[in-house]
Amino acid sequence: MNTGKTVFTQAISFITKYEFDKFVNKYNGNYKTRHFSCWDQFLAMSFAQLTYRESLRDIEACLQTRGRRLYHLGFRGNITRTNLSNANESRN
After folding, report:
1. Is the pTM of this model over 0.85?
2. What is the pLDDT, as a whole number, of residue 32?
3. Which of 74, 69, 43, 44 is nearest to 59 (CA)?
4. Which residues contact 63 (CB under 8 A, 6 or more apart)?
5. Would you call 53 helix, strand, or coil by DSSP?
6. How far apart are CA 11 and CA 40, in angstroms?
7. 36: helix, coil or strand?
8. What is the pLDDT of residue 6?
């Protein structure tokens, strides 16, 4: 069993959550959001970019295979196509 960090988590660790949250608060990015934060959207889009995913369905399918272990990758919200499409449509 792997007791260390995943490669994705190691790559994302270069971006501090504090700095990211500073910009989200500055531009009011989490306005009217409940479960799918800007951080979750950033992680999903970063994962898609790093793994060459081509569609929202592909991103969702790949992330859902991780199941309960998504929490260890840093995701807090529910990753669905609807959440991803709404977030991509309404946020810069």
Report:
1. yes
2. 83
3. 44
4. 44, 47, 70, 75, 79
5. coil
6. 15
7. coil
8. 81
Instruction: Spell out the residues 6+ positions from residue 20 whose beta carbon is closer than 8 angstroms to its own.
Output: 38, 39, 42
Cα–Cα distance, 87 to 52 (Å, whole number): 20
What pLDDT sits at residue 81? 93
CA–chain centroid gap for 17, Å, is 12
Return the closest-CA partner of residue 26 out of 34, 14, 18. Answer: 18
* Cβ–Cβ under 8 Å, residues 44 and 84: yes
pLDDT digits (tens, 9 = 90+) for 7-64: 888 888 899 989 999 999 999 888 888 888 999 999 999 999 999 999 999 999 999 9
d(CA 18, CA 86): 24
Dig out the tokens for 26 from the structure: 């500055």
